[in-house]
Amino acid sequence: RRRAGSRGGSSGKRSPPGPFAWPLVGNALQLGRLPHLAFGRLERRYGAVFQLRLGRRRAVVLNGEAVIRRALVGSGARFAGRPDFPSFELVSGGRSVAFGSCSPRWRARRRLAHAALRARSTAAEVERHVAAEAGDLVRLFLRRSRGGAYFEPSPLLVVANANVLCALCFGRRYGHADGEFAALLGRNDRFGQTVGAGSVVDVLPWLLRFPNPVRRVFRDFQALNRELHGFVRAKVAQHRQTFDPRALRDVSDVMIAAVEHSERPPEGLGPEDVEGAMTDIFGAGQDTTSTALSWVLLLLLKHPRLQRDLQAELDRVVGRSRLPMAEDRPHLPLLEAFIYETLRYTSFVPITIPHATTDDVELEGFHIPKGTVVFINQWSVNHDCGKWPDPQRFDPARFLDAQQRLDRDRAGSVMIFSAGQRRCIGDQLSKLQLFLFTAILLHQCSFHANPAEDLTMDCIHGLALKPRPFTVTVRQRQPMLIQS
Ligand code: HEM
């Protein structure tokens, strides 16, 4: 039954409409494993702005590009807070950029992280590291495909991508056979399950008082955050010991220099903020981009003709005597369109990290009090049929204009990195990484699906949606430029 926007108590201000909320749990158990789809159904019923109750907390869900941009870009910092959830405190030693609430210190930490990342992720540097990792991947892929065998590519993509981040952040990489590194990265899935919109532990904290599956996931979350932060702290400590202000080696050194060796350090920041921001960059950066790469591979398997078209474009523009480079990007519109369509179609971060209002605010005529949890439904932007004809169809050509050039406006209106003051700081880096990995892998290899498997778009849920495990066999393209 529809409940219209109600007048809130004595204030007479209009609250957003929303479904009936059950005592104790509110709507927390109604969102299911894929809350963006539940939000889509509720949007059709209640409109672009509606409210829920999660336990005792009030939450508002924002849908559609216009409303989301008005809130995140047009309302200053009022939608840029984070809820004071117990799990958020555990991330990056409590000094997280991504999970920290909006304060002058958080702002300084974000600026520090953004500037250090930009300084050390130039096209040349990213290209060097991706080329090395992609070379290793090609060799591994071909080895595992001997005799036409099928293997699971996603775990290898995770390590390759984490190594790019490790090289940029700490100046080193790990072998694919390094069990400890693989184990550290393998725990990523559980991170996303705790902080994603469908997670109930933060809104039903009494679930932590007795043994149950939610408590187990939460305790795992505690352990994995401690472990990741410990890994990064050890790396930063080594950097401090060998620090030379005249030769900054990587993102760690740039941050140490700015905070610990500067005459005018950013206000309020100390060594723990360097460790917190580094943990965030490493944590956020290695999980997301590798997920995107897994989707890229899955979609190449589902669309073999498109795979051949992409290879033909690469052969025409790059030729067969060298590997693709960052500067080829503007000349490969089909490849760019394919990547944007992958981001749009999968919308694999369908809802951002939860936001919170930092003040009372009016939006679309509704009153939203300070401290309200706000969910930003990016999926709704990317699957809006008013904006994308037939949004459930995978079609890279929607990003090409009549001259087969990339339509930059359309590409820019895919929403996967959020917007406004909380927009992802790794957007440029991850798009460049995605481009280079995809270009090099497709230039050197072709990818073939396992006929015994059904290639489904079903996913593992969490903050990021990941493809279910799938296998592939890889064949080399001639002439091979990567030595085996
Ligand atoms: C395809 C890859 C990626 C996607 C789809 C992605 C997406 C996102 C999203 C949706 C958010 C939340 C924004 C919000 O709450 O409104 C976010 C935040 C963030 N991302 Fe990314 N990200 C990616 C790669 C990266 C990389 C490579 C890095 C760093 C190297 C990074 C660092 C961060 C940080 C530090 C934040 C927190 C920003 C804040 O709260 O102020 N991300 N990202």
From TrEMBL:
List of residues binding heme: C424
GO molecular function terms listed in the Swiss-Prot or TrEMBL record: heme binding; iron ion binding; steroid 17-alpha-monooxygenase activity
Translocase as UniProt keyword: no
SUPFAM superfamilies linked: Cytochrome P450
Assigned keywords, A-Z: Endoplasmic reticulum, Heme, Iron, Membrane, Metal-binding, Microsome, Monooxygenase, Oxidoreductase, Signal
GO cellular component, one term: endoplasmic reticulum membrane
PANTHER family: CYTOCHROME P450 FAMILY 1 SUBFAMILY B MEMBER 1 (PTHR24289:SF15), STEROID 17-ALPHA-HYDROXYLASE/17,20 LYASE (PTHR24289)
CC cofactor: heme
GO biological process: hormone biosynthetic process; progesterone metabolic process
Family: Belongs to the cytochrome P450 family.
Subcellular location: Endoplasmic reticulum membrane; Microsome membrane
PROSITE patterns with a match to the protein in the record: CYTOCHROME_P450
Bilayer topology: Peripheral membrane protein
UniProt name for this protein: CP1B1 protein
